[in-house]
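Here is a typical protein record:
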Amino acid sequence: MRIMIKGGVWKNTEDEILKAAVMKYGKNQWARISSLLVRKSAKQCKARWYEWLDPSIKKTEWTREEDEKLLHLAKLMPTQWRTIAPIVGRTPAQCLERYEKLLDAACHGYNDSELTDDPRRLRPGEIDPNPESKPARPDPVDMDEDEREMLSEARARLANTKGKKAKRKAREKQLEEARRLASLQKRRELKAAGIQTVKRAKRVRGMDYNAEIPFEIKPVPGPYSTDMEFREHLHQSNVSFAPSSLTEYEKPHKKDLEDQLMKEDVRQQRSQDRKTTPSAVQQLRALVVSNTGKHKRKLELPPPNVHVSGLENLINL
């Protein structure tokens, strides 16, 4: 069983397919874009676009100002290459690669122009760990069968600029036009044979806005009688007029209700104060005393159990 491992060096054909797919599907549907490329995944397609194919990426030589800015930002924000990259104007992979190259040059004491044997350069047989940020490999003269099939399928899919609904609408429109031409040819042949056919108008369900006025009320023929309006005017003039204000129809305002309640509370407080004055208290106390005096009972004690002789005996003891 053949197992296809996705990844590896990018080829010129894959780059062109990826560019065309991004133009059609945008930069948010990477799964659909990767379905056009047999040997690449959605994550690899996204990385390839943002690391190499994006037109805003600078691929020129690094200047001295960019190197100074890179070293200064790397000191302020170490290992934060995604934050440093937009400030420098390069991709994160470019910033990391340039920073490591500058460190190697500073450690070994040679300039960038004197670097002939880069220790990070791949040896024969080694696999590139980051192929998305490297130039594409040119296409061979005789491509594999898989590449030809991938290219033909991508060409067919990308050439379809209309979706399923648009294709169905176009097909229905074409069938309708063919049906109209067939009926027209049939009527012409019948007319040439001497048979006259009357084209029946389609019955429109509901209201035909082209043939009639919607909701039309036709007036009665003859002069319009205004007796009803005259009688109504007389009836309104005979009704006695009763003036009324707007407050009768509107609800009382909340503030007015609060003022009325406050006035009622003040009135109750004043009446309570009048009841609690000293004269009122004296009158109330006298009333209570008079009421209690009328109904006071006589004190009734039980008969004594010890007489005078008994008390004398107790004293002698």
User: Anything to note?
Assistant: The first helix runs from residue 12 to 25.
